[in-house]
Amino acid sequence: MAGVRTVRGRAIEREVAKLANRRLLFSVETERAVARILKDVRKNGDSVLHRYAEKWDGLAPKQSLQVSEEELANALASIAPSLRHALETAAHNIRKFAEWQKPQEFAKDMQPGLSVGQIVRPIDAVGCYVPGGRYPLLSSLLMTVIPAQVAGVPRIVVCSPRPAQETLAAAALLGVAEFYRIGGAQAIAALAYGTKSIASVVKIVGPGNRFVTTAKKLVSFDCAIDMLAGPTEAIVVAEEGEPAFWASDLVAQAEHDPDTSVVFITSNAALAKEVATELKSRAKTNAIAREALNRNGVIFVTGSPAQSIEVANAIASEHITLSRDQLDSLTSAGSIFLGPYSPQSLGDYAAGPNHVLPTGGVARFRGGLSVVDYLKIITVQEVSREALVRIAPIVTTLAEAEGLSAHAESVRVRCTRA
Predict the structure, then answer these.
(1) Per-residue pLDDT tens for 160-190?
(2) Quick one: residue 113, left, alpha or beta (phi over 0 = left, psi -120 to 50 = alpha)?
């Protein structure tokens, strides 16, 4: 039975502090094991990749690490028309949202003769990690590959262990050319450092288990990463509404992982009790969700709607549901769902915004994966001779205040010859 806890009064502050500091922890044992794998792949390349893939990822002896174009095409041809339609619709929405997100180039005159602006360029290559363990997360393939395509990344690599036909079909639908059937820390090592058959990438994105996430942490000074994503987090803030709606959102997120954090916040004690009953009922046949609720399920009964939002801001959850009139008061979250007919599952699949989101308090300083993660925004300046003469005293005064005489001279030499 789901044993979600109800917290009131002074206990709220203590419980919020625990959730707000729910950092992603890396055990010493995990880090040591991952470090050995990274070193092994870096030193021995493809041979050790094959060995690890046969041991952990179901690769057959002498089977190619790379999925062939024929296999990808056959996977797409094998799926049901309804699944293909669903993939196409979700892909369309994700692509459109990424296009809207893309920053624009501009050039503007700061003053006559001083033009400034920015250009936008894609990174050269990205590695998209798609989990293939408990669930075949084909949606994560869409969420990581499509923004890269919108950004114009010329080389997009996908790694996924034991890839399901549905995942291969999604890759084929998007036109992915490089897909490797490898996972875990060894896949991250191959992407970061390269092997004879897999060239290294500039950045690695996508969710993964503790070995994948630890590997991303350890390679992050050699290869850029998106973020360190831990177990799923979900909050619902409500003062009224249908208890079944709120409970179903929390159970849906809870089934991701036994370590999922699920929180309901309200100042309505009667609603809190009804939601608790719904949680117990809806998790009854879902073992993973039931375990997550037992471990990390909390209902906060606050003193006011304003306190409810304070609690939500302090936790900075990956997912949060609230009402439109509360939106302006919310300061930190990975992705927001407004109103009773915006289920969090919609964001996991087809609404358009990305589902690769910050956890463990990271939402305090960044949002979810976006097209910007695949881009470089490069600033541009162009100055006429006349404009340089006008601004030169400002630059030389500041340079001399810092003791950087050569900086000042680089301006003066131009002014004397203008």
Answers:
(1) 999 999 999 999 999 999 999 999 999 999 9
(2) left
**Structural contact between residues 323 and 339, judged by C-beta atoms closer than 8 angstroms:** yes
Q: Which of 155, 204, 250 is nearest to 356 (CA)?
A: 204
Rounded CA-CA distance 210/213 in Å is: 5
Task: Tell me the catalytic residues.
Answer: 318-319
305 — phi, psi (to 5°)?
-60, -35
- Note if the pTM is more than 0.90: yes
The pLDDT-based confidence of 24 (bands split at 50, 70, 90) is: low
pLDDT in tens, 355-412: 999 998 899 999 999 999 999 999 999 999 999 999 999 999 999 999 999 999 999 9
CA distance between the termini of the chain:
81
- Find the mean pLDDT for residues 321-340: 97
The CA-based angle 228-152-87, given to 5 degrees, is 70
